[in-house]
Amino acid sequence: MRANAMPNEMWNRPYQMIDRASAIIENAPAIEMHDETRERIVSEARVIRAWAYLRLLMTYDNILFDSIPTTPQNAFDPVEYKPADPKDVYNFIDRDLDYAIKYLSYKVDPGIIGQGLARQLRAESAMWQEDYRTAAEHTDAIIESGQYKLMDISEVFGNDINHSESLMAWQFDELTGGSATLAGGDGHVLGACFQACFYEISIPGDPVAPILKEASYGGNCYGWTYPNDYLRSLYDEEKDKRFQFFFYPDTLYGNNPASQYYEKKLPGDPPYST
């Protein structure tokens, strides 16, 4: 994969989502349907648009602001590439989410946008604006809705994350490409970004790699993002269950039968680059 592929995707994809959501929002009033259905669809599109703008602001800071959907009539109009005032974008995000909160229900099917996600994003936007009172109001509303409860830490990121702690999960199924029955799937590529490439470890004096690619060591990974020392310092490594369940251990054992470290502890503290 090219080094610039991920930054390009993180810029282009949200703008595609914004453009298509804006088209739904602008054209829905002219389509014949029940008012309740129209408001739900428009609200879902507004949440998607708000999510995309919020992610762009968080990632790039200086972004373009354009809520006019692309049409055959304007597709080739000149574009003014001018950084938007973040206050204008945040106001736009908040208006979209406030609209959606009025019309969406907390109780929705898996993969469907509901009021829980809309309020979470509204709180997130408020946090970025240092409006902590508003953030607290929306998070309290989620907690007091009665629709959600905490899961056991070992079950939060299992194969099925359509559970009581999930506000909304993008639906993914490795075989079908999309399903409401298996969020996350087995082997979603996103996890590979955060997993170290243990199979690349080499030890002087051992002619073969001591670790082979297998699921118990994360499989075939990208290894783009690792936890640093500061992040680790935030956890009580002996008592914090998040650290116990979701961090790979520093102590590794070889799994390659051809290696002299097969089923033995690999040297080093830790035995891989930090």
Q: SSE string, helix = H, strand = E?
A: HHHHHHH
Which structural class do you get from the secondary structure elements?
Answer: mainly alpha
| Span between termini | 23 Å
- Biggest sheet, in brief? none
Indicate the low-confidence ranges by residue numbers: 178-186
Number of helical segments with 4 or more residues = 7
Features:
single chain, 274 residues, mainly alpha, 0% strand, elongated
Structure description:
- Helices cover 38% and strands 0% of the residues.
- The protein has 274 residues and is mainly α.
- Residues 178-186 have low confidence and may be disordered.
- Helix 1 packs antiparallel against helix 2 and helix 2 (35-60) runs antiparallel to helix 3.
- The chain contains seven helices and no strands.
- The longest helix is centred in the N-terminal third of the chain and has 26 residues, at 35-60.
Short account of what is shown:
The chain has 274 residues and is mainly α. It has helices at 5-27, 35-60, 86-103, 115-128, 132-144, 229-233, 241-246.
SSE diagram, text form:
Blueprint: H1 5-27, H2 35-60, H3 86-103, H4 115-128, H5 132-144, H6 229-233, H7 241-246
Helix pairs in contact: 1-2, 2-3, 2-4, 3-4, 4-5
